[in-house]
Amino acid sequence: MNKPVITIENLGKCYTVGQRRNGNEGLRHSIEAAMRSPLGWLKTHRQNKSRQVDFWALKDVSLEIKQGDVVGVIGRNGAGKSTLLKLLSRITVPTEGRIRIDGRIASLLEVGTGFHQELTGRENIFLNGAILGMSRAEIIRKFDEIVEFSGIEEFLDTPVKRYSSGMYVRLAFAVAAHLEPDVLIVDEVLAVGDAAFQKKCLGKMGDFAQSGRTILFVSHNMEAIRTLCQRGIWLKGGRIYRDGAADDVLEDYFNDTANELAFSFANRDHGLMIQKVILKNARGDETSQFRPGEDLIVEITYDAQKPLADPYIVVGVQGINGSCFAANMLLDGHQPQAMEGSGRLACRFKSLPLFPQSYSVKMSIRTNNGHDMILNYQDVAYFSVVGDLAEYGYKGEFVSRASRSTSVVVPYEWCLPDGTSVSVSLALPCK
Amino acid sequence: MTQLVIEAGNTELQYWRDLWRYRELFYFLAWRDLLVRYKQTVVGVGWSIIRPLLTMLVLTIVFGKLGKMPSGGRPYPLLVFCGMLPWQFFSTALSESGNSLVTNSALISKVYFPRLVITVSSVITSFVDFLISSVFIVALMIWYHQAPTTKVLFLPGFVLLVFGASFGATVWISALMVQYRDFRFIVPFVVQFGLYISPVGFESAVVPQRFRLLYSLNPMVGIIDGFRWSLLGARSIIYWPGIAIAAAEVFVLIVSGIWYFRKTEQIFADVI
Questions:
Q1: In Å, how far is B118's CA from the nearest CA of chain A?
Q2: pLDDT band at B98 (very low <50, low <70, confident <90, very high)
Q3: Nearest CB to A114 within list B8, B111, B112
Q4: Is B4 within the bounds of a domain?
């Protein structure tokens, strides 16, 4: 069970940047240079090379992944995640180092790779399956299962160019989900599709992991990684920055991101500057972690160089399943008469009815009765809700999956057939 | 359990083993191209007959009627069609398969399989077209009461030769195209010229004997001659040195093509 399936030693991938600018990729240049001086061509070729800049997308990466491990790879854009996956799935070759993989490997870097617009769903299942490395017999055997999973039976003989994007993704994932490799490599494929389908995909990957197979998963969906993975690898600048238990790595990563995203904004026309947006808990401590039922205070520090009349501010909270709730001055009508000079404005959301998941705070500012947009509705801060649901009286068998369910829980009460009633809420447990 | 080692500098053995493992993909990609080619067309697969038929008519009129080229007593359309059969195969392979890696760039940058599969299966697609239009030559021979002689037994050899030529040239061009898109402009040019400098619309016998060897440096000369000789038999005289040159050239083209393809294949995903 604990045999390493993937062994990576000193892996590095170097891209040469600036090649195009030097213009030695065009055929004309190559021929011309060779014609001018057949011997000198070799020389200039080498000189050109020395002028180019080497960029190491990945450097000195060594790791070992054991059978049955479900590993989440995180990191900022350009950290080398995609390069790592490309090397593992053999799309490109390493510049140095080696990778050893024991077992059949399949990678899913994109949903619907090789789908052809003109072909029908049925035809694409075969084509896509073959491209992903399934044999014909295998596809025929799993055909019904694939169709059922995708839920597009009626459109099986329609060209996929007439599919809605949702149908397209469903079919594509269905094919990929029925690959049965020992090691599965998955890139940001779940970023597409609606929430319900994303859940289905995650469920399928969960089943896959439970059957003792190895998954390497790259995603920006922190919750997906949290639920699915035991181990997290954080890539930074092409190197492994942290490698450990998924929860720990994610928490560090999250705090790191929250710290680095210090939102600020300036609108010259209206002379408004938002210097910072910070999140505080009920005690007034600045934080990015809250417990269910705690208060969330969004505090905005601004500097209005010109007086801004009737500023309409919207502050909202968005979770993995979309918008949760918002405080909207356009609706409640409690806008300040004006914002002038530097000052502070805060919105306190009381007893967050939120499940332990990741959230972002969004904000927009309008003026002129809401007609002029000063700040577009956008992310201004991030926070996560953490906590043990058992403390809130949750004891269901699937409580561990709460992080995948809807985000908002309004206090509710079950009235059971035996006449008893039970109330459930995310109010902070009394101590 | 299969074990895979990925490191800088690929192992040749692994590659050929993979090529075998992905053998079904040859079929699937060719099948896709065939399916797609005639989707949303009214005439459908009929196009692979109509295209050569119209070209045949034009060439017969230009070279046979207006140019008054000698036909050695055989019906001119038949003469032309025998030349067009291998030429059409070669030229469509060049112009369509040469682009194959670039058109499939989405695949190349997202999933692994030996890239040679793409190029080969696209040559196979052109070959299927070739087979379909071969049916037409049978009809044409019946129409002109031309019975094949025993020389027709050599035909498979020439078919192999034209397949080799198409494959070799395509492997070169598709690999070059990844890095040098210039070939997108070069190929149509070559195809256009090739039609006139290859003996498609006329017999290579019209070329003066002393230039014959020089003329045969174009591998399509030997191949087209071979097709005419084996199909029309009787009064055709074959120029064996030409065939030998063609065979040698095809061999070199294939070997060097695969060498170049393998050499550049590793960076396909990075530069495409």
A1: 11
A2: confident
A3: B111
A4: no
Cβ of residue B108 closer than 8 Å to a chain A Cβ: yes
- Cβ distance A94 to B8 less than 8 Å, yes or no, reads yes
Q: What does CATH list as the number for A262-385?
A: 2.70.50.60
pLDDT at B90 over 90: yes
Q: Which residues pair with A421 in a beta bridge?
A: A415
Identity of the amino acid at B172: W
CB contact under 8 A, A119 and B4: no
Looking at chain A, which residues constitute the CATH 2.70.50.60 domain(s)?
A: 262-385
Domain with CATH 3.40.50.300 in chain A: 4-104+181-256
Query: In total, how many domains does chain B have?
Result: 1
With respect to residue B112, please indicate whether it lies within any of the assigned structural domains.
Answer: yes
Give the best residue of B14, B20, B24, B263 to mutate against chain A (max A CB count within 10 A).
Answer: B24
Hey, are the CB atoms on A92 and B5 less than 8 Å from each other?
no
For A317, which DSSP code?
E
Give me the pLDDT at residue A194, please.
64
Q: Touching check for B20 and chain A: CB below 8 Å?
A: no
Alpha carbon distance A285, B186 (integer Å):
69
Q: pLDDT by residue (tens digit) across A245-260?
A: 888 888 788 777 766 6
Residue B6 pLDDT greater than 50, yes or no = yes
Residue A32 has pLDDT above 80, yes or no: no
Name the pairing type of β-strands A53-66 and A372-385. Answer: unpaired
Residue A326 has what pLDDT? 94
What is the pTM assigned to this prediction? 0.71
**Annotation: CATH topology of A4-104+181-256:** Rossmann fold (3.40.50)
Phi, psi dihedral angles at B14 (to 5 degrees) = -55, -40
- The answer as to whether B96 is a domain residue is yes
Strand-pair category, A183-186 with A53-66: unpaired
Domain that holds residue B84: 12-271
- A148, A145, A150: which is closest to A180 by C-alpha? A145
Shortest Cα distance from A100 to chain B (angstroms)? 4
B7 part of a folded domain:
no
Average confidence (pLDDT) over A399-418: 86
CA distance A286 to chain B (A): 43
Length of chain A: 431
